Amino acid sequence: MFAVAFASGFFFSGARLLGSHFSLGVCAVSLSGVYSPAAILGMIAYYALCGELMLSVAHICSALLTAVLAVYIKKHNFNAPVVLSAGSCIIMLLVNSVEAVGKGYSGYMLAFNMIDALICAAVIFMASLLLEEYTVTGKLNISGSRGVFAGVIYIMLICALTSIPLPVDLGRVFGTVVLLYFAKKYRAVGGALIGVLTSFATALCIPSLAANTLIMSSSGLICGALFGISDLAAVSAYIISTLLSLSAVGINSDTFVMFWDIVIGSVICVILPADVFRAGRSFFTTAKSTVDLVGQTASSRLGYAAKTLSDVRRDISVISLKIGDRYKPLPLARRVDMNVCSKCECCELCRKRLSEHNKALEVLENISDSYGVVTLEDIDSFLPGCTKKPVIEAAFIRASDELAFERANDIAVSRMRELLCEQLLSMEELLGDMSNRVNHIKEVDELLCERAKELFDISGCKGARVCVYLNENRRMFVEAFVSGGIKSDLVRLTVRLSDIVGCDMELPSINVIGKVTRLIFTEKPELEADIATFQASCMGGEYCGDTVDTITLNESERYVILSDGMGTGERARLDSIFTVSLVRRLISSGISMKCTERLINSALSVKSWDESFSTLDIIKIDLFSHTASFLKAGAAASYIIRDGSVIKIASNTLPTGILTKCDPDVTQLKIDPGDMIIVTSDGVDESLLVGNESLASRLCSLSPDAAARLIGERAVGDNGREVIDDITVAVVGIGSCTV
């Protein structure tokens, strides 16, 4: 920031307005805040280099006083844009007036100094507002009045760059780069607008350059219209139209300089990495579109619905606890006493020995609980004087049945409440997951959406719904929903779509539900993943109880799913297939790993106890963010082999479906090119990989297919058909994408 402040003070000090010095350097000092000393040093360095140090004392004095004002305003938290601009204007007017009186300036110079101060004050106000908004939103708003402010700042920047005495006009070179960017994003309107602003800025700085520079507006209009064909055609048309226009205007001293300015700017625009334009696309923002507002509203509604379900679930849990605390079933002794003893004609006699009577009934209750029945001999032993021993015996039997029924009913109701709470929690997480996905869409480009939709229509997918958006990581997505099948060449469609959005897109991932086909195009990631598997059945059986599957949600988001059915053979195989198929369907529809596991756990919780359960291992590999996430529910350890060392990822959770609520373990780690992710079932002993450096080093040099086969063969060993458990190995090799 110190270097930026120094550079802005240096370059802006040379700005000229109608051929005369302009106080734009004072604006740089005022906006630099705590770095204003660096901007002042930049001003002094420029004036000293040009030999104008003594002639620019007034500008330096204005800058020093403005820096003091800026620090004072910052310290006391005033309304910075208004106070800073007004204060700077007053300071420059006073200093310029003193200089005019002292040097005996003419009326023209006095008027120029006043206009200079007013323009600088306006620039300070506009730039302060834009910077203030940028610090909050992280984006530069170019819509409405903010767009006008941004245009004024752009004009001042071009004035400063054009004033630099070089063989080429840096203002026009920079203007060409900006023009081509806006022409690509906003087509003819963007190209023509930047061309006009650049021409106006050049005319303010050096009026003699206005005639040639005005050509940029018409050239920008032409190239903006051709960006729909290809980038190369648009840039070529821009250079050719500029050359033809210069020829039509006539040869002058600025003709060849203007042409080389255009060529240099075009070359810079072509060789700039795509990431620069992508960053620029996310840096600028316009007014909230209807799509953005609807997305925010949908996210808020989903979040509100999730919060409502959370409140309902909490209320049910509280009520269940209170009911459990308040309701205590009557013990057997109390039931028998109420139903028999209190109605007996000898009740008054028994009440005289109440404590002994109650103790006797409690002993009989303990006998009933221990042995399940109370006999006449038991009653005769502890209630020898009772005249209704058979009735007491029948009452204990009846009371035991009633109590057992009540307890069973209570357990069933409690179990239903637990399942209801778990289902509500699953719905809460599902809605929260959907809300997060909507909220992660940071910017929807409506113009690109329209152009992408036109491409799908031309390609034979009439009526396709297409959305082009950036997520919070500045990552470009194109999501399309097509009714019916895909009738176009996906390779050609992807290439043309890449030209439209301005970045390399991967071939789409395709998910078909009913008659609707969903296509997701994503930017090409820096990494790639190669997945291979190996399986062996227990005792050489026909069925392997493990099921492994992979999902390509998009080219940068891959999943490996492994489920180990409890036991072996066909029964275990069915359970693991059921679990994996559910995971595939849920994740393919866009549900997160953790929410998927909870939904599956709820589904498996209703299985009867004679049915088996299954472990669950989900590995999400994000090749764009260079991360791997491991979700484990009763699963065996997984491993990452990196540079010959082994990183173990283990878990102590239970398999899915055993308990109503059993949260899985989720671990996230960074991945790099050359890493190898190994996922195994419990048929592979940990000692095979942990502590075995020679095997780890050897695996690093193998392909994923060879590595999976080597680990599987080592796990089987010499046992052959006597392996006591099913064996499954999945290996993911991480490499760099080759272009």
What does the model show?
The protein is of the alpha+beta class and 739 residues long. It has 5 domains: 1-138, no CATH class; 139-286; 294-439, no CATH class; 441-522; 527-736, PPM-type phosphatase domain (Phosphatase 2c, domain 1). Helices cover 58% and strands 15% of the residues. It has 25 helices and 19 strands. A 5-stranded antiparallel beta sheet has the order 5-6-7-9-8, with helices on both faces. A 5-stranded antiparallel beta sheet has the order 10-19-18-15-16. Strands 11-12-13-14-17 form a 5-stranded antiparallel beta sheet. A hairpin with a 2-residue loop joins β8 and β9. α15 (332-339) packs across α17, α15 packs across α19 and α20 (446-458) runs antiparallel to α21. The two termini are 36 Å apart. The model has no long low-confidence stretch (mean pLDDT 80).
Largest pleated sheet: 5 strands, antiparallel
- Helix and strand content put the structural class at alpha+beta
Strand content: 15-25%
Compute the average pLDDT: 80
Strand order of the largest sheet: 5-6-7-9-8
What is the CATH-assigned architecture of the largest domain? 4-Layer Sandwich
Q: Give the uncertain stretches in residue-range form.
A: none
CATH superfamily of the largest domain: PPM-type phosphatase domain
Ends distance:
36 Å
**Rg calc:** 39 Å
- Please tell me the total number of domains: 5
Give the count of helical stretches. Answer: 25
Helix share of residues?
A: 55-70%
Shape: elongated
Summarize the structure.
By secondary structure, the protein is an alpha+beta fold. It is 58% helix and 15% strand.
